[in-house]
Amino acid sequence: MRVWLAERLRDILYGLLVVLFWPLVAALFRLSVRGRAHLKVRGILVAPHRSYWDIPVLCAACGPFCRVAFVARTGLLRNPSFAPLVWGFATIINREEFSREDLRKMLKLDKRARLIGIFPEGTTRPGAEPKPGAVWLAERTGRPLIPVNLVPRGPYPPKRWGKLPVVFPKVEVRIGKPVTVEELGNGLPQGLSRPERYRQLAERLMVHILAQ
Asked: How many CB atoms lie within 10 A of CB 89?
């Protein structure tokens, strides 16, 4: 009962924050959303990670009544601007030294959240290879993967003048049809090792996301 009440409180606080920040995010990025109906399932939201702006843009696109429980790496706690939100609304894992405790956290998250948010690349660094965590979690929980692409018309991340962003592009958030791990793996060669299979599935997932 206590856990249920805590989650409902998070839902309310999350919704209030989205309501407060949605007008600003929508105005700055002249935000438009396509495919919001695909969010009706219990799934894993997967998107490319180019900027820390991705998170408020995705939250605004999904709306105040559709909380996204993000999986976050421990490094974000070092940023005082993000730490309170990470503690309040994300599940924190040590990606570099993934342990049984991290595994337990992710499986526990599956029981609590309707939408889990994961950035497969795990970093905003350009050219990073996608990690298999989202595919692994989808396979373990039976949840579908919901591909989401942020399509900007202009410089993204926003151009800066000094430390302040000054040029914001128009952004369309495209939410694709949910896809299962089985569908993602259609046509993969037989006999692949477990690491190689997950590597190829993660690559296919990123291709699928960017095709939206």
From this structure: 19
pTM (two decimals):
0.91
Tell me the CATH number of domain 2-210, given options 3.40.1190.10, 3.30.950.10, 3.40.1130.10, 3.40.50.10490. Answer: 3.40.1130.10
Extract the runs of DSSP E, i.e. beta strands, from 1-137: 32-34, 43-46, 68-73, 90-93, 115-118
In tens, the pLDDT along 151-181 reads 999 989 888 877 777 889 999 999 999 999 9
- Give the chain's end-to-end CA distance (angstroms, integer): 40
> Would strands 145-153 and 170-175 be described as parallel, antiparallel, or unpaired?
antiparallel
Q: Which two tokens stand for residue 56?
A: 């408020």
